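User: Show me a protein chain along with its predicted structure.
Assistant: Here is one chain, sequence first, then structure tokens.
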Amino acid sequence: MNLSFFIASRYFRSKKKRNFITVLSIISVVGVAVGTMALVIVMSVFNGLEDLIRGLFASFDAELKIEVAQGKSFETSEEWLDSIRNIEGVAVLTEVIEDNALLDYNGNQMVGTIKGVSDNFLDQERFSKGYFWGDTTLGTELNPAAILGRGVGFFLSVNLDNVNVPLRVYYPKAPRSAASLDPSQYYESAMLDPVAYFSIERQFDDEYVIAPLHFVRDLLRYGNRRTSLEVKMAEGASINEVQKKLIAHLGDAYTVKNADEQHAGIIRTVQMEKLFTFLTLTFILAIASFNIFFSLSMLAIEKKKDIAVLKAMGAPEKLIRWIFLKQGAMIAFSGAIIGLVLGYLVCWLQQAYGLVSLGISSAVVDAYPVKMAWSDFIWVSIAVIAITLLASSRPAYIASQVDTVKEV
């Protein structure tokens, strides 16, 4: 057995007397354990929130979204669309026309976003997350239907059971004559049957109305123009590979964004919050590790005679330093292992039983989402090792400088 490790372990396991140094060592272990557990739990919660956001957005947004680099819309043709469909990895291509419009239901009005989608939109497990009420249909050519965000439906006081009151949509158009006094010359209007609500995230719930592509195309007079194309991957296909193929096929005139890039702002915000929380809790853990510093400093004072004897027997200063460094490592690692295990158990219990509720009855999930990642455990361990070395280095150096002549 390594001599420095043997002596350090003897100091760590010593039970001869319960003095102040022993109590301080126990406090050090508890402090590191609590700090480590807090790091694991908080980082797992942020992982869960990030995963929940991605899941919610995936219920509404496409895996890949094609838009024009400059401008609002672009011309399409069947040959051009077929060339995209034939790219390896593309399973479904959804055509989209999206714009703001005035919504009117039984005299209640608001400006919302109407999103016209081709028939295959609902065949892609849309709205698999969140809540959905009503029929999963967009009607027929003669009787188009609409799926409303819950916020839109509540604001307009839409009653899905009342089939006699349609949702009227108004869209402005250029007047035929600048001097025209006929208000109908300034807008197009058409009617939809509201058949369902969806609730995913407030950004979508309070703005969007999903309608058939042909309805929005005729209302907005878009013809063959589209505002975006949404791509669903074939099973087993790599999103990154398909994205690269689409970028190469379409050129610089178009952008191809994956799910994270479509909502880069909010994803980046969650990741930054996770980073700063990690740094803050690591700083708190560093403060707690001062107990290790004081514990080793007191131990170095108490063991001066032992150190002097070791040095008189020929022990080099390096050996003395390693004894105290390993003593600090034992304190820190004991706390870290306890903290990692407790953090894992708390996160597992939250995943399995939802111990801590969000306290919001209308939330998509009832309890705080948690997702454990082994990379977090690794980073926490690295932080503990770094803090331990920092806290133990000074007491180890002081112990190695004990004067043999004075202490023996």
